[in-house]
Design goal:
By secondary structure, the protein is mainly α. It is 78% helix and 0% strand.
C-alpha cells in the first residue's frame, strides 16, 4: 500500500511506540493536569509536530548523517537528558503555593511537548533507524509513500493523545479538591523527568 512494505505492521509499530512509557506520555499527562483540556491538546499537537519533523528529517537522510557521525547523536542525547533533568528539577523543587512549573499558556505547552519529542532519543532512534524498514524500495512512490506514512502517524498520535488527555482530565477534576495529592503528583512527575534524563545520559 503506497509503497509501504507492511502497512498493518507499520500501524501496530506506531501504536506500540506510543504506548511505551516515556517523556512524551508524561508531557501529555502533566500538561493536561496543569492546563486542562487546552493544555493537553496543545501538548498533543506539539508531539505530533515533533514526530513529523523527525520523520521528514529521516526522509532527508539524517539517518545516514548520524550513522557517519556518532558524536552528533551523542550530542542530541546529552541535550535531551539535560533538558528533561532541568525541567524535572524545577518541578521537584517547586515550593507549595508557587506557580506550577507547567502552568503556562497553551502554546507554551505545545512548544514544550515539541522540544521533549525532538530531544527524545527513543523517538529519534525509531524514525532514523526503525522507520525506514517499512519503506518498500521496489514499490516506493516517493513523496506519496512518505506523505501517507506521515498522515498515518499524525492520525494515530492524535487519537492516542486525545485518549490520554480525556482520561487525565477526568481524573484531574477529582484531584483538584485535594491540593496535597496534586502537589505530590507534581513531585512524582519531577522525579520521573530527572530519571528519564539520567537514563538518557547513561545510555550515550
Amino acid at each position: 500500500m503506497f509503497g509501504i512494505a507492511d502497512y498493518g505492521a507499520f500501524v501496530v509499530a506506531i501504536i506500540v511506540f506510543l504506548l511505551i512509557p516515556g517523556p512524551g506520555n508524561l508531557a501529555l499527562i502533566t500538561s493536561t493536569g496543569k492546563g486542562g483540556m487546552k493544555g493537553g491538546l496543545a501538548a498533543t499537537l506539539g508531539v505530533i509536530l515533533g514526530d513529523q519533523v523527525l520523520m521528514w528529517l529521516a526522509v532527508a537522510g539524517v539517518a545516514a548523517l548520524l550513522g557517519a557521525y556518532p558524536t552528533a547523536f551523542s550530542a542530541v542525547q546529552w541535550l535531551g537528558a539535560a533538558y528533561l533533568a532541568w525541567l524535572g528539577g524545577k518541578m521537584l523543587l517547586a515550593k507549595p503555593g508557587s506557580a506550577p512549573v507547567l502552568h503556562i499558556k497553551p502554546h507554551h505547552y505545545m512548544k514544550q511537548a515539541l522540544m521533549i519529542t525532538l530531544l527524545n532519543p527513543k523517538a529519534i532512534v525509531f524514525y532514523m533507524a526503525f522507520f525506514p524498514l517499512f519503506v518498500d524500495p521496489t514499490r516506493h512512490q516517493g513523496l506519496s509513500t512518505f506523505g501517507f506514512m506521515a498522515i498515518t502517524i499524525a492520525a494515530l498520535t492524535f487519537a492516542y493523545g486525545l485518549t490520554v488527555v480525556l482520561l487525565t482530565h477526568f481524573l484531574a477534576e477529582r484531584l483538584k479538591a485535594n491540593p496535597l495529592i496534586s502537589a505530590g503528583l507534581e513531585k512524582v512527575a519531577g522525579v520521573f523527568l530527572i530519571g528519564f534524563g539520567v537514563k538518557l545520559a547513561m545510555s550515550r
